[in-house]
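If I may wish for something, please walk me through the protein I am sending here so I can picture the backbone:
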Amino acid sequence: METIVFMDLDDSIFQTRRKCREPGPLRVGALGPDGLPLSFLRPSQARLLEHVFKGAAVVPVTARNLESFGRVTLNFEHGAVLNFGGLILSPAGEVDEEWLAETRPLCRAARGRLLEALAGAEELAGKRGLGCRIRLISDQGLDFYVLVKTLNGRPEELDEIAALFSEFFCDLTLHRNGGILAALPPFLNKARALPYHLEKHLGHLGPDRLVLGFGDSLTDVDFMRLCDYLIIPSGSQLERRL
């Protein structure tokens, strides 16, 4: 039986140094835009990853875009799902143009709404003096979602922007975990991309495959439910909600 692991990355298998409270040596998981180590695997995470790499096809399922995913130091050989499912990479690391052709008109139709949400968040943050970085996440010439990050380690500063999105942009899906808030068009969902990637890029593994879903956020649940088993890290948003 072949095993496939669809795995979220940030805060599932690595995180910033500030969140690494487990004793023992850290392993670099991703670099920052400046090229310096930014995210790390704790010893238990490194052991888990070593184990699954030996016996499974591991596919990242992440909010990261292509540029950000390129700064991940781990070696994935079975493709990837990026931008919350908006972009798919083949096992050769190439953009799946067939999937992109499906996503492109949806992104273009949603762009105006994302720009309105971006402007609203920037205006509110400026008026309130919120310590946030707000930007539009783009890839392949397409805008996918609005991302808001706290810059001072105070996730409560996202409350007002989350309330703004909920009241005036209720047609957008909100992802919030710790100091990160994202507003996504409704078609953008990791679960939407999984069946396509599974059949097109991993179909050769056969019908008796075992599929595991690994994630830490509430918004990961949809893609994890498509798998045979759900794996949840201790201390994660999902584990706390349970």
About this structure: The mean pLDDT is 95. Residues 98-184 form a domain with the Gyrase A; domain 2 fold (CATH 3.30.1360). The radius of gyration is 18 Å. The chain is about 35% helix and 25% strand.
